[in-house]
């Protein structure tokens, strides 16, 4: 029993044997450890976890994929409609490994991580985050992550470079007029160097926004869910965005200009 006493009050709480609490072995392989700032890991988790699937039908898509190789930590999340990849340089270049951590666990862990340096350790079944204040452990997802590199376009039909603040402001205004499917049409006009948004809702009206852009390639129109377009804004601090399209029905590749850490893909909707 646990007894609580305060002033004139007293409470007793029944307990259960502590031997029933499951043991949590710490991953002991020293090769599977890296040291990195907690604030960096927190930002990584919170930025890309929203791109993971919320369905448990395919647990691998409800997870964040981690790959550590050549001194680079690569984190990937996708729900099959959009994909975010972030890369982080590491001081320890000898560690290698791949694992899947459930996205919900990653979000919970991010709220408890310190800002200063911590140790990330992992084995086949779990990963641990160790700091001076304690240790957080998560079981890993036992699944195979799809080879996402295959869907990244290797060629392009058109590329537009726009200011991020202009992209964000125009998108926010246009999305008000999107339909029940949250569809927004994106247009590349290489002759006038204009990148534009268009949305129509039969109950509200329609809206179009044109942005000055540096465009190379051919004219093209694609439609997207505006939520997936706006998600990229939280993933990069770059002042400008590069949007590369490989053609109708192909994913749109978005990067921050000068930001080599980010790769973002979003699949188009039917026109």
SS field, number of helical segments: 4
Q: Averaging pLDDT over every residue, what do you get?
A: 93
Q: How much strand content do the residues show?
A: 35-45%
Task: Tell me how many strands there are.
Answer: 19
List keywords for this structure.
mainly beta; DNA Polymerase III, Chain A, domain 2; 271 residues; nine-stranded antiparallel sheet; four-stranded antiparallel sheet
Q: Can you give a write-up of this model?
A:
With 271 residues, this protein is mainly beta. The protein folds into two domains: 121 residues, DNA Polymerase III, Chain A, domain 2; 115 residues, Roll (DNA Polymerase III, Chain A, domain 2), CATH 3.10.150. It has four helices and 19 strands. The strands form four sheets. Strands 7-4-5-6-19-18-17-11-15 form a nine-stranded antiparallel beta sheet. β18 and β19 form a beta hairpin. α1 packs across α2. The N and C termini lie far apart (65 Å).
How are the elements arranged and paired?
Layout: E1 2-6, E2 9-13, E3 33-37, H1 38-48, E4 63-69, E5 72-78, E6 82-89, E7 97-102, H2 103-110, E8 117-122, E9 126-131, E10 134-139, E11 158-163, H3 164-175, E12 183-189, E13 194-201, E14 205-212, E15 214-217, E16 220-225, H4 226-230, E17 240-245, E18 252-256, E19 259-266
Antiparallel strand pairs: 1-2, 3-8, 4-5, 4-7, 5-6, 6-19, 8-9, 9-10, 11-15, 11-17, 12-13, 12-16, 13-14, 17-18, 18-19
Helix pairs in contact: 1-2
In brief, what are we looking at here?
With 271 residues, this protein is mainly beta. Helices cover 13% and strands 44% of the residues.
């Amino acid at each position: 029993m646990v007894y609580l006493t305060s002033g004139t009050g007293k409470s007793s709480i029944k307990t259960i044997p502590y031997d029933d609490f499951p043991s949590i072995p710490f991953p002991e392989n020293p090769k599977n450890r890296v040291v990195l700032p907690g604030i960096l890991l927190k930002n990584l988790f919170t930025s890309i976890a929203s791109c993971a699937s919320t369905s448990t039908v395919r647990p691998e898509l409800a997870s964040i994929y981690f790959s550590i190789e050549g001194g680079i930590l690569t984190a990937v999340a996708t729900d099959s409609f959009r994909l975010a990849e972030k890369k982080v340089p590491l001081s320890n270049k000898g560690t290698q490994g791949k694992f899947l951590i459930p996205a919900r666990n990653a979000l919970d862990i991010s709220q408890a991580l310190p800002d200063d340096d911590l140790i990330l350790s992992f084995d086949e079944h779990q990963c641990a985050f160790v700091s001076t204040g304690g240790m957080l452990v998560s079981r890993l997802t036992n699944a195979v992550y799809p080879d996402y590199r295959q869907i990244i376009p290797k060629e392009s039909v058109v590329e537009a470079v726009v200011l991020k603040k202009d992209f964000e402001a125009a998108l926010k205004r246009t999305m008000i007029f999107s339909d029940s499917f949250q569809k927004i049409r994106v247009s590349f006009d290489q002759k006038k160097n204009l990148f534009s948004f268009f949305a129509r809702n039969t109950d509200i009206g329609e809206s179009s926004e044109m942005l000055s852009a540096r465009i190379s390639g051919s004219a093209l129109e694609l439609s997207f869910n505006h939520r997936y377009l706006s998600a990229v804004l939280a993933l990069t601090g770059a002042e400008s965005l590069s949007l590369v399209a490989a053609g109708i029905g192909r994913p749109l590749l978005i990067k921050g200009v000068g930001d080599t850490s980010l790769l973002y893909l979003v699949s188009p909707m039917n026109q």
